[in-house]
Design a protein that fits this description.
The protein folds into 2 domains: about 80 residues, Pleckstrin-homology domain (PH domain)/Phosphotyrosine-binding domain (PTB) (PH-domain like); about 70 residues, no CATH class. Helices cover about 45% and strands about 20% of the residues. The strands form 2 sheets. A 4-stranded antiparallel β-sheet has the order 1-2-3-4, covered by helices on one side. It has a 4-stranded mixed β-sheet with strand order 7-6-5-8, covered by helices on one side. Helix 1 crosses helix 3 and helix 2 packs antiparallel against helix 3.
Length: about 170
């Protein structure tokens, strides 16, 4: 039986990048960001072309908040979350087999059968093992050897439970 043993630890930067990825992967977040840019640019355009005699403060503030304020909030919330939740920053040992995933940290241990995994997603730099639509374990791809990543993809593709969002090899 093929089994992958993988040791990993998320840095604060990894956690912040993952939070940005998870926020901006949703269409409504992209839409909100686009509305912010549109509000900012239209307010500046109207003022600079002379269509308005006063600076449209409400539109500019709204645009600035959606374009810059939300990302700043995400950054600081992720930093705070990383520092407050010690489990996120613990070294973790993943044991991935055909029938389950075991995850061990300094303060916890869990064993999940594949039918309890909601989804598995692959990005350029992470493997996300989703336990629910809102909660994912983040595993940096840098911690996989190439043959381990290929075996992981093969194991996940054989499973019936999780939604498979892995890149085709």
């Amino acid at each position: 039986m093929n089994k992958i043993t993988l040791s990993t630890q998320l840095s604060e930067q990894d956690f912040i990048k993952a939070n940005f990825y998870l926020y901006f992967k949703k269409w409504n977040s992209k839409f909100t960001f686009g509305i912010g840019i549109l509000a900012l640019l239209s307010g500046l355009f109207l003022f600079l072309t002379g269509a308005l005699e006063e600076v449209p403060c409400i539109g500019l503030i709204f645009g600035l908040y959606l374009t810059f304020g939300l990302p700043v909030q995400i950054y600081f919330a992720a930093r705070k979350g990383y520092r407050k939740n010690k489990r996120v920053s613990e070294p973790m040992l993943y044991q991935i087999a055909q029938d389950n995933i075991q995850i061990k940290g300094d303060s916890f241990e869990s064993k999940l059968s594949w039918d309890k995994v909601y989804s598995v997603t692959e990005t350029k730099i992470w493997i996300l093992i989703w336990l629910t639509p809102q909660v994912a374990n983040i595993v940096p791809k840098r911690d996989f050897f190439p043959e381990q990543l290929a075996l992981f993809n093969a194991i996940v593709k054989e499973q019936k439970g999780p939604k498979n969002r892995l890149k085709s090899a």
